[in-house]
Give the backbone structure.
Amino acid sequence: MPSRFRHKAVAFSDALLKAIMAKKKKAPPPEPFARLCLVTPAGLDPEAFAPMLDAVLKAGDVATLFIVSETSNAAELQRIAEALVPVAHANGVAAIVPNDTRLFGRARADGLHVEFVALRSAIWNHAAGPVAAVTEANALIAARQAEATE
């Protein structure tokens, strides 16, 4: 008699184990794939470039548009970003602007590319100190994320 119980216990355990394993099976991960990150060309006219950009973004799988300019003129870079960020958003593409948090906010960009030297300088030279600089940056990011989810 004990051998019969033992056999049923083993059979029950095997069935239970199979059921547990079947529940835990996950779909295989998707095949890795690459998505494009486009960088705007130098010397572009945003009004003329926007329709071409729209066609390009519709043609392929683009993840990110990095909006750069050879100009150091903040007003010109803002004009470019304000023309191109809505085109990127309309196509489900993240728009990244360089180095200027004000430009990031005004243009409603998705991200900010900060060069190491600029980041280090901004943190260490912040009027209220480096801890305040990081706290302020985190608050800005959180506010932008909250706006995006509304």
Q: What stands out?
A: Confidence is low (pLDDT under 50) at residues 3-12. Residues 29 and 138 are 32 Å apart (CA to CA). Residues 35-113 form a domain with the TIM Barrel fold (CATH 3.20.20.70). Residues 2-24 form the longest helix (23 residues).
